[in-house]
User: Fold this.
Amino acid sequence: MAQWRCMSHLIQYLPVETMNDLYPSSTFAIEVRHFLSDWIEEQNWDKFALENVEQEANARALLDELVMLLQSFSHQNANVVDKMKLMQISRNMSMFQHQPLQFAVMVRETLHKEKVLLRAMPQANNPPRHQQVVAKEVTFPSTQNVDLLVLKVLEVQELRQKIHQVQEELNWEKQNFESLQGSTGTMDPTMSEVTRLQKHIEQLDYNVNTMATKRFQLLTECVDCLDQCQAQLISRLKAWRWEQYKASIGHPFDDNLNVLQMWCEQLLGVNGKLRQELMLIVEPIPELQERLGQLLKLLVQSSLVVDKQPPQVIKTQSKFTTTVRYLLGETVAPGKPVVLKAQIINELQARSLNISLSDNVGEVINNTAILEHNTASKSTCATFRNMSIKKIKRADRKGSESVTEEKFALLFSTEITITGSDTPFKIQMISLPLVIIVHGSQDNNALATIIWDCAFSEPDRVPFAVPDRVPWKLMCSTLNSKFTSEVQTHHNLDQYNQHFLAQKIFDKPDFTDDFSNMMVSWTQFNKEVLPGRQFTFWQWFEGVMDLTKKHLRAYWSDGLIFGFIGKQHLHLILKQRPNGTFLLRFSDSEIGGITIAYVGAADSGEPNQIIKNIQPFTKKDLDARSLANCILDISDIRFLYPDFPKLDVFKKYYSTKTKGTPDYLPLTLHAKVGSGETNSSTADVANISHHTENHHNAAGYLVDAGSIPKCVPNMTHHGENSLNAVEYPMSPFQQFTPTDAIPQVQMESLNSSDVFSGMAPGDMDLDMTLDWMG
Assistant:
């Protein structure tokens, strides 16, 4: 019942085609799964397979019990429509009376497909508070077609046995006929016996010819079905590789290859049985033999998979690991071990794959591995440990192309002989695209090349073709997916974040309309620096991701960080708020920084308010003292936008731990705005300015409501949809609507007036001070 409970949440998001495939109305209607969910999940369906004929009695018993339960539910159901529906379904189930094993295997496969779906969409089991599940079509192996193919092969084998039996009888009767013809007697009974034998022989000969014709038709159907099933398998293997690549930008990915391996093994077994049947035919059928040989070669060559990809950004002279798996490992002919070889190839070579060892464009250390079978996991893998690229030969670059834009790949190759086949098969498989760097400073730009290639390339492309320009809605979706996966959060970039990012990459801070279909180029993404900055859009965005992942995940996930917001938008939402109101935003002028923007009084006693931005906190600052502790240290900020007391909001993040050892006094750091501020509540504390820290300037500007241009999207906080076409279930800012994750009771031992009553208003700088606690 637990599995069906999860599935019932997921069903509403599945495409109609997937639903029809999962619960076909003619054989296993969804009503059966619903009404008998407890009973179905209590049975052991894994033991059933079409080959296990000894389980046929058990399968028939379960089928009879299922029909009886359906009839019982029908009689007890007060709804006339449901009653008639259940009665019709119970009658339909009688079609399995002569094939109970097929019924049991069908239920087994349905339960397995459900598990595949649930693994592919785990968020559907327990959707986050502020995130709805986005429907996604999930495909799975069509093992039911393979089972039907197995049944057809069994039918061919049975027909061959019948032909053999009839042929033996025919040979015997022909011998008797010849004996009677050779006798000298002329009695009528003998003549009538000869006539009877002659007619019987003619009938047997007719039967043999008829069954032989039927066998040829069945063999042709089997080869056609095998071709179709193998095409589905290869398509699914390509989809698996594509999903593996998309996982680089945060897409969900089920890396389990066991089902695909079982599918490969089944098709190889079917191919072998069909080739055997053709060998047993007196007159060869060269057309079918050739097709089976081609299918065998294609299957053997398609079963090599890069299970664990190498890093997609590799620094020369550095070690890395990769694993290649062969899905037909148990059928490899014993004897000589299978050795896989790896070599680096460039984009031009990847397009042809006609590569000889003399064409190497780089030197790879530890580039061989032996294919080894693991009996426990039933997997056959070659693991390349301590692999390293010693040197690389680069192609001539075009125009302004940099070394971090050049893509390579690892080519894995070997020769494999399958049991039952004397001919060795040459097999090749390439890895995902790689960028080779020689210095760590190139890592960020190399990653940008991989992100762009992964996000915007097409399946079955020519390696490694990728468009130079894409619509913003695709870029926006990629940024959101990468950000949430890298930070490991369910809190998506909301409509305001998306709009600000669009304004930034297009350099249109005053644009308020829809960016969705505007084309963004690779140059704008990571070639040109942002206006007035020394870094590109991707370098800035990646810095924010890294900071959030390492120091701000919990704050972001709870909606405490406004995040990506422009200064014009900042004015609009803070201009009517009281002094001390603040919000947290990512710095747009510094890589990897978060700043506090707050409302304060203007200087020189002027009546106007002023919005100040404290110099951003970087990873170095937050390594020394957490963001929550810094916020609690600063007396000028009191309410998280719009009006949440900061002690209530940041209580659970506040840490009182101090650094110290038995030989030293404990040490704590405190943040303060301005160099002259002291804390009167710690009279015994020696406040010493920590000059090794950066001074945090608070840049201020007067708030004049009439002079601020409205350069934010035309969206209300709750009612309207985003102007951008890419929409995500928005986790409302806790600055607008608090969640249960933020305690709404004040700290028992502290309140804002007690802690900050002795602190003077801050100046334009923020220092970090050291306290030695006696």
In short: The mean pLDDT is 80.
